[in-house]
Structure formats: C-alpha cells, structure tokens
Design brief:
7% strand; 9 helices; mainly alpha
Length: 281
C-alpha cells in the first residue's frame, strides 16, 4: 500500500508540474481552486470572497443536482445565502443520476429534499411531475414499472404518487392521450440468461443466421453487442414498415408534418465492433 501511495504522489507532482509549464488546468483543478477561494477549511465558513458574491448573486439556479459531488455542493453552499430566506433553487431527479464515476453523490440532493421545512435552513419542496414530451401510454408504462422496481430500502428512491409522471396539458395534447391511441406505445424486450451465462431467448436463436454486417457470428458476440443488434434489427423493421413516430405539431406559422422515422439508442458500453456502420441496414 505504501508503494502505491508513493506512486500516486509522484504522479501527482509530475502531472502538476507539466500542467504549470503549459499554463493548463483540468476539470479537477477548476473545482479545487474555486473551493480554496470560496471556503475556509480551518473555520469551516465561507471566505470573504464568497461573502462578496453572496451579496452580488440574487438567485442561484442549479439543474441536475442529483449529479452534484461534495466539492461542487460546498462551492454552491459558499456562494449562496443560507439564512431563512435562501436564494438557491435546485432541480434534480434521483432516477437520472449517471455521473457517479465522477464522484457524484445523489444522496446530497436527497438530503436537501428530506430536510424540507427543517431548521436551520428551511427547504421548500416542489414536485415537477407534469410531462409534456411523452404519450400518455408511455407514462402509464413508466409509472407502473418504476412503482414496482424502485424501493427506498433497495435503490434509495421511493416511487410514490408524488413521484409519478403526469400527462401534462392534456387538452392541448389530446391526440397523444391513451383514449386517442388504441395501439401499444411500448415494447419491452428481455434477454434472459441462465446462471451459466447461456441465453434463454428465442430472439437470439432467430438471429443466429442473420447477416449482421460483421465478420463475427452472432453467437460469438458479447451480451452488449447482442443487445445492440437486437435493438437495431427491431428498429430496421419499424423503419421499413414506415412506422410513424412523430406527430403533427401546431406552430404560430402553421402545422409541421410528423417525423417519418427517427430513433435514439442508449446502450451499455460495448466493443468497437458495435458501430453504426455494421448495424443491420
């Protein structure tokens, strides 16, 4: 352990020297330098510089607070007024936390929410549940699924009635309501595996002989690559069937036509073999 610590210290010194020679700073430097300017560690209080900016900043608005880390939270604490009439407005969603690899701690935001109305710094909590982007059937599926999956004891998040998404501006968006759409709006594909790691999916067997545009047979792809090709194959089917995913939109200047076809995929990291070029179609 001592050798490892010495190696880290030596690297830090060399890296710092190289950055100074080039008058450069990385993201971590910007955080730490800002913290030194704004927070006095011995007294655990904001510095005079921070006090100056507390008076200058009338309101501080911060989005995606579920992905804040301890350093960033301390910087914002130093810049904001923390009396009864605070000036910090935080927006976040625990379910969307994706930056833990950069030391993001969603429990910081959760802590503010839990201390609603508690001294010494009262917090007013406002639920932003109205959704203006999705079809009502999609929201129904999401609410049903997360109500069953998310529990505070397991994930640290409770998906109760307040957390459920609401179909916003229902009158103006009635063409996207459940009552106006008879066809399903959600497909759920599960890749089941045995304990040995072998697939239990009929879809995998159906794709064994599929030309996936790769020199590697489908059966030899890793799990992430198989998922990518399963998704790409389904999207190609939708595209070839001229499946419409966009709705007509009303604007001040008139009506815009619906989008014929588009998609967005979010996949777990895979090898470079899974690229747009070797997706089917």
């Amino acid at each position: 352990m001592a050798t490892l610590l010495q190696l880290v210290q030596d690297f830090t010194r060399s890296y710092t020297t190289a950055k100074r020679e080039q008058a450069a700073a990385d993201f971590h430097d910007l955080e730490q330098f800002a913290l030194r300017l704004l927070w006095d560690v011995p007294t655990s209080q904001p510095t005079n510089i921070a006090g100056y900016w507390q008076k200058k900043l009338r309101y501080v608005f911060v989005d995606e607070y579920q992905d804040i880390n301890a350093v960033q939270d301390r910087i914002l604490t130093a810049l904001c007024r923390n009396e009864v009439e605070g000036n910090r407005f935080l927006v976040g969603d625990m379910k969307q936390s994706i930056y833990r690899f950069r030391l993001a701690n969603p429990k910081i935001f959760q802590g503010y929410a839990r201390h609603s109305g508690v001294d010494p710094v009262p917090v007013a909590r406002i639920w932003l549940s109205d959704n203006f982007r999705s079809r009502e059937k999609v929201l129904d599926f999401i609410n049903s699924m997360f109500s069953a999956l998310l529990e505070e004891e397991i994930e640290g998040v409770v998906y109760d009635e307040q957390a459920k998404l609401v179909f916003g501006r229902a009158t103006e968006r009635r063409e996207l309501s459940s009552a106006s759409l008879s066809a399903p709006c959600v497909e759920l594909h599960l890749r089941l595996k045995s304990k040995s790691g072998t697939s239990l999916n009929d879809e995998d067997e159906a794709l064994e002989d599929l030309d996936i545009g790769s020199e590697t047979p489908f059966s030899e792809l890793n799990d992430a690559e198989k998922e990518a090709h399963l998704v790409a194959t389904r999207l190609l089917e939708l595209k070839n069937s001229h499946h419409q995913v966009g709705m007509k939109r009303r604007t001040v200047s008139g009506t815009l036509p619906g989008v014929t076809w588009w998609c967005c995929c979010a996949l777990r990291p895979a090898s470079p073999r899974v690229t747009r070029e070797n997706f089917p179609g």
